[in-house]
């Protein structure tokens, strides 16, 4: 049996690798997809071979992740339940696609992943894998199937003579360029404030600089292209913003999240670049889109976001939605000035060649002014239906 395993290098997928070899006598090929999880990538290949992988692939998908997934999320102002910028949800379909490509190339019989039966990731992995794999390739999720706990994983490694990673991690972390998700430990009590040690990307307020950080972010058709007038490569753009904005203490999220599988969970994230870019992008949209476009956009954005969260990247609806999203983003070009200070972010300026804001019209002191008659006529007709309803119903 030839298995291709989506391998993060963490405890669970390491235990799965050993289990597949020892218990099922399988040949295991490991695939690690680099979506910017810097810490986790260290030593992954060595570990895979040490644990008996017959072959290992590390695939650098950072550029593809940012250009084809993250920037689509920016264009859609994607914040699930108003707060979570979808880091994990965006990366999973790409990881699954890359793993499926290797499975195809290697002629694997089975594809394995490390998702549990309680989370969202199993939905995202299974569905995307199904879309890319031949139907006779089996998808297995040993953690889900055997209900493995972290203790079980430690046991499997120890029993087979492998060293268990010493720095036993307190939290379950999922990291990529777009967000760092922190689950478990005391965070499982939703009334407990996340301790500073849970965070790695964002400085505690006490350590942030005493002067604000000003950034000018330029967008071209909805995509961020420049910082302070300098063109920046897409992957670098995210890294720079994570680092700089994180240093000023902004980018934490703490929310009670509705999972795909009917459960509520307490989720904590760090996402400085994501929250900055979405804030800035949405602000620019308010300047360049007509009121009705803006309202339609917010509805479409939400459908797109829910779909991606729910593991339905493969749903053709997404592509239809993106037509509308892109069509409106044709006008989302311009600059946004952002001020970050002591954990808060404010948009303090914006300008665009497509701006619908007309200073000479809005200013009370000069320029266009409707006549009293024009204004009265407009108001009468505007509220006519409401006044009619009130008089018919006799109530206010
Ligand atoms: N709740 C987030 C999501 O569903 C993050 C999940 C983190 N995944 C993980 N395997 N730790 O997108």
Structural summary, described in words:
A 5-stranded parallel sheet has the order 3-2-1-4-5, with helices on both faces. A 5-stranded antiparallel sheet has the order 10-9-8-13-14. The protein is an alpha/beta fold and about 400 residues long. It folds into 3 domains: about 1-170, HUPs (Rossmann fold), CATH 3.40.50; about 175-350, Argininosuccinate synthetase, chain A, domain 2, CATH 3.90.1260; about 360-395, no CATH class. Helix 4 packs antiparallel against helix 5, helix 5 packs parallel to helix 6 (about 120-130) and helix 9 (about 235-245) crosses helix 10 (about 270-290). Helix content is about 45%, strand content about 20%. The mean pLDDT is about 95. The chain has helices at about 10-20, 40, 45-50, 60-75, 85-105, 120-130, 140-145, 150-160, 235-245, 270-290, 290-310, 315-330, 360, 370-380, 385-395; strands at about 1-5, 25-35, 55-60, 110, 140, 170-175, 180-185, 215-220, 225, 230, 250-260, 265-270, 335-340, 345-350. Strand 8 and strand 9 form a beta hairpin. Arginine binds near residues 121 and 267.
Bound molecules: arginine
Give the strand content: 15-25%
What's the average pLDDT?
96
CATH superfamily of the largest domain: Argininosuccinate synthetase, chain A, domain 2
Structural class: alpha/beta
Strands, total number: 14
End-to-end CA span:
75 Å
Shape: elongated
Short overview:
This protein has helices at 11-22, 38-41, 44-50, 62-75, 87-106, 121-132, 142-145, 150-159, 234-247, 272-288, 291-309, 316-329, 359-362, 372-382, 384-393, and strands at residues 2-6, 27-34, 55-60, 110-112, 138-140, 172-175, 180-183, 213-220, 223-227, 230-231, 252-258, 264-270, 334-341, 344-351. It is an alpha/beta fold and 396 residues long.
């Amino acid at each position: 049996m030839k298995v291709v395993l989506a391998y993060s290098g963490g405890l669970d997928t390491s235990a799965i690798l050993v289990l597949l070899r020892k218990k099922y006598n399988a040949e295991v090929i490991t695939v690690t997809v680099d979506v910017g999880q810097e810490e986790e990538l260290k030593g992954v290949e060595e570990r895979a071979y040490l644990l008996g992988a017959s072959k290992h692939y590390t695939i650098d998908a950072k550029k593809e992740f940012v250009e084809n997934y993250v920037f689509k999320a920016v264009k859609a102002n994607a914040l699930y339940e108003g707060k979570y910028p979808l880091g994990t949800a965006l990366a999973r379909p790409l990881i699954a696609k890359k793993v499926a490509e290797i499975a195809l190339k290697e002629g694997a019989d089975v594809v394995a992943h490390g998702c549990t039966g309680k989370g969202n990731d199993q939905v995202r992995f299974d569905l995307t894998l199904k879309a890319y794999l031949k139907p006779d390739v089996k998808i297995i999720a040993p953690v889900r199937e055997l209900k493995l706990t972290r203790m079980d994983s430690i046991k499997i490694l120890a029993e087979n003579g492998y060293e268990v990673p010493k720095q036993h991690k307190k939290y379950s972390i999922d990291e990529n360029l777009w967000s760092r998700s922190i689950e478990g430990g005391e965070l499982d009590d939703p009334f407990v404030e996340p301790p500073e040690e849970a965070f790695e990307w964002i400085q505690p307020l006490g350590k942030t600089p005493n002067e604000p950080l000003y950034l000018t972010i330029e967008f071209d058709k909805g995509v961020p292209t420049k910082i302070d007038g300098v063109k920046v490569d897409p992957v670098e753009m995210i890294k720079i913003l994570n680092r700089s904005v994180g240093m000023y203490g902004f980018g934490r999220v703490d929310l009670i999240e509705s999972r795909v599988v009917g459960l509520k969970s307490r989720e904590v994230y760090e996402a400085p670049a994501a929250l900055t870019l979405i804030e800035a992008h949405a602000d620019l949209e308010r300047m360049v889109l007509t009121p009705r476009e803006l309202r339609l956009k917010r509805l479409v954005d939400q459908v797109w976001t829910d779909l991606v969260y729910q593991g339905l990247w493969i749903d053709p609806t997404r592509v239809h939605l993106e037509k509308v999203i892109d069509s409106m983003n044709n006008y989302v070009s311009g600059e946004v000035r952002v001020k970050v200070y002591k954990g808060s972010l404010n948009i303090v300026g914006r300008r665009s060649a497509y701006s619908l804001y007309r200073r000479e019209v809005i200013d009370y002191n000069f320029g266009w002014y409707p006549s009293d008659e024009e204004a009265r006529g407009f108001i009468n007709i505007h509220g006519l239906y409401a006044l009619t309803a009130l008089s018919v119903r006799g109530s206010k």
